[in-house]
């Protein structure tokens, strides 16, 4: 609990520091008609900051309050824009506020639809039992704790660039919990390893994390330009993993053998997902359209395939029934009776709606603070007074305290003048910085719930110095290998 209070205090200090810094600016001024107001020193500006700080404090206490994180930020977004609407109406600048609101809504809509399609595909793979099959294979191989530690880590690193880091971390955690049983020491160290690997793996792919997706969709980094982050991401994972591997328990886990039969069409859905990603990349690289256009087209692929699965289901069941009868397989006959047709819209409903709505609240809150003048103020301090490299390193540390989504959205809203090397650096630090604390990323928060009592805030905190070494090493490697991109 003390750790949570510390993070709340630090985040409050950061937000309040913007208000303190604003006292160095000129008094609240009204620009000419058609431009935004500078409200950084006004009562309304301070009130909006307080609302956002309270909302985000509640978000960070989600584990203890059992309150979904979307609720406080949705309320805060509404209140901040009510304040903005009231002030701008007073100064006859309603149209300026309306244009800013529509711009933020468009930003959100593109990311919402992109993430919705990706989550639908992941949900479809889960329903077709692909993840269950992978889990059963890993559990049944009889790996010792050291092998399991490295296997779950490497799989988390290489799956998260395709699936998101949250889904990947939960899948690997399920394997660890099933194999490790009551060995709390191994569960904690393995979960720390999984969080680091999932966050590092997501840093070099536009699909691995929401922050990388945001940078890609904003046009600052193209799809192929993420690849220079691969080696720094590997270093970010390997350095702490190598150190932690010396502290693994010597015991042998119990092996549980389980057969999982994939549902019809499972592997073809994976191919459709790869084709969907290719379509999104082509829309962005060739036509210079937002990638979301390709993702929505990819949803059509899944819908047509779902239609095929439903219409061909009777013939498929008839063949399997005849085979089961011929083999006198009563178990297979019972399974056929419980087959449910594939439904795309049910998969859409299983998307992480709390995350998507939380993202809306964050985008609108940060967009509101930007219109009030706070992001321009922060940009002036961080990216004009500091070296951009140090500013981007600080962004990564901040993302361990405050979620990396609002931090990255704030950077994108500031639109600092940076080289490609620095845009890649902030992408890396915002992605992997969340590994420093268990509450710093969605993967860490989710695993604290999945492995409740075995993987904890303080269990992760004791490894923070080791994780920090990996964080620093990945930055140094990026600066050395990609030096030409900073010019």
Automatic annotation (TrEMBL):
Which stretches make up the Citrate transporter-like domain? 60-431
Q: Which UniProt keywords apply?
A: Antiport, Ion transport, Membrane, Signal, Sodium, Sodium transport, Transmembrane, Transmembrane helix, Transport
Per the UniProt entry, the signal peptide is 1-21
Q: Where in the cell is it found?
A: Membrane
Q: Where are the transmembrane segments?
A: 43-61, 73-88, 229-248, 269-286, 292-309, 356-377, 389-412, 424-451, 463-481
List the membrane topology term(s).
Answer: Multi-pass membrane protein
Give the record's family classification.
Belongs to the NhaD Na(+)/H(+) (TC 2.A.62) antiporter family.
This chain belongs to the protein called Sodium:proton antiporter NhaD
- UniProt organism field: Vibrio gallaecicus
């Amino acid at each position: 609990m003390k750790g949570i209070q510390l993070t709340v205090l630090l985040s409050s200090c950061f937000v309040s520091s913007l208000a303190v810094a604003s006292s160095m600016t000129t008094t609240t001024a009204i620009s000419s008609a058609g431009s935004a107001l500078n409200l950084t020193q006004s009562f309304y500006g301070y009130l909006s900051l307080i609302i956002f700080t309270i909302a985000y404090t509640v978000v960070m206490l989600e584990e203890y309050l059992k309150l979904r994180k979307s609720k406080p930020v949705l309320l805060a977004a509404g209140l901040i824009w009510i304040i903005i609407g009231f002030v701008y109406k007073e100064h006859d600048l309603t149209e300026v506020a309306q244009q800013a609101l529509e711009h933020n809504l468009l930003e959100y809509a593109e990311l919402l639809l992109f993430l919705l399609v990706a989550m639908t595909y992941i949900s479809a793979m889960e329903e077709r039992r692909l993840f269950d099959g992978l889990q059963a294979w890993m559990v049944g191989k009889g790996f010792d704790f050291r092998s399991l530690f490295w296997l779950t880590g490497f799989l988390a690193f290489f799956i998260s660039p395709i699936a998101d880091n949250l889904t990947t971390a939960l899948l690997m955690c399920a394997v660890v919990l099933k194999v490790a049983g009551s060995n709390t020491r191994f569960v904690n160290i393995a979960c720390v390893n999984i969080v680091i690997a999932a966050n590092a793996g997501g840093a070099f792919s536009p699909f691995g994390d929401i922050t990388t997706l945001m940078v890609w969709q904003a046009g600052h980094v193209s799809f192929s330009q993420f690849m220079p982050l691969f080696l720094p991401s590997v270093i970010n994972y390997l350095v702490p993993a190598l150190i932690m591997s010396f502290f693994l328990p010597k015991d042998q886990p119990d092996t549980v053998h389980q057969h999982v039969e994939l549902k019809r069409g499972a592997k073809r859905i994976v191919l459709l997902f790869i084709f969907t990603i290719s379509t999104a990349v082509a829309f962005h690289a060739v036509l210079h359209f937002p990638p979301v256009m390709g993702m929505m087209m990819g949803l059509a692929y899944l819908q047509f395939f779902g239609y095929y699965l439903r219409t061909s289901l009777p013939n498929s069941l008839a063949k399997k029934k005849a085979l089961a009868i011929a083999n006198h397989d009563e178990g297979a006959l019972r399974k056929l009776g419980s087959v449910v047709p594939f439904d795309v819209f049910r998969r859409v409903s299983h998307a992480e709606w709390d995350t998507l709505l939380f993202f809306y609240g964050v985008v609108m809150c940060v967009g509101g603070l930007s219109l009030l003048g706070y992001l321009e103020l922060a940009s002036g301090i961080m990216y004009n007074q500091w070296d951009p490299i140090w500013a981007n390193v600080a962004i990564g540390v901040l993302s361990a305290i405050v979620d990396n989504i609002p931090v990255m959205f704030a950077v994108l809203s500031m639109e600092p003048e940076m080289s490609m090397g620095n845009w890649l650096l902030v992408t890396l630090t915002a992605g992997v910085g969340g590994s420093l604390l268990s509450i710093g990323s969605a993967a860490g928060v989710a695993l604290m719930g999945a492995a409740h009592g075995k993987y904890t805030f303080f269990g992760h905190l004791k490894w923070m110095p080791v994780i920090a070494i990996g964080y620093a090493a990945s930055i140094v490697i990026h600066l050395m290998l990609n030096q030409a991109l900073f010019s």
